[in-house]
Amino acid sequence: MKETLEEMQQAAFQIIAHAGDARSHYVEAMRLARGRDFEGAKSAMASGDKAYNQIHKVHVSFIQREATGEMLPFSLLLAHAEDQMLSSETIKIMASEFLALCTELLPVKIDQHSK
């Protein structure tokens, strides 16, 4: 049981790290979209999605283990990690909608130096 708790704590730290990384990319996507850099915003969203997918790999592994009958210990750290995961998911949805709105309403900013 001790190994499982340590394993869960390590996984929780991975989730927290990936959630922070994903959240940073999603916020950056919104900033880029506000500046009309839509290609940059899409790239930032893709980077955020890549980090977010790492969260799911770790989280789903615990769900699968519990679904097969393994009793996992309660971990407050894992509960915190899940909270971070959910907040990243919320920011992902907001960033996606913000990017769609900006793409629809703002004209593309043309770099004057590239002409």
How large a portion of the residues is in β-strands, by DSSP E?
Answer: under 5%
Q: How is the main sheet built?
A: none
Number of helices: 3
Radius of gyration: 18 Å
Counting helices, strands and paired strands, the structural category is: mainly alpha
Ranges with pLDDT <50 over ≥5 residues?
A: none
How much helix is in the residues? over 70%
Overall form: elongated
**How many β-strand stretches?**
0
- Average pLDDT value? 90
Series of H and E elements: HHH
Kindly report how far apart the N and C termini lie: 64 Å
Please characterize this protein's 3D structure.
The protein has three helices and no strands. α1 packs parallel to α3 and α2 packs antiparallel against α3. Helices cover 81% and strands 0% of the residues. The radius of gyration is 18 Å and the shape is elongated.
How is the topology of this model organized?
Blueprint: H1 2-34, H2 38-67, H3 76-105
Helix pairs in contact: 1-2, 1-3, 2-3
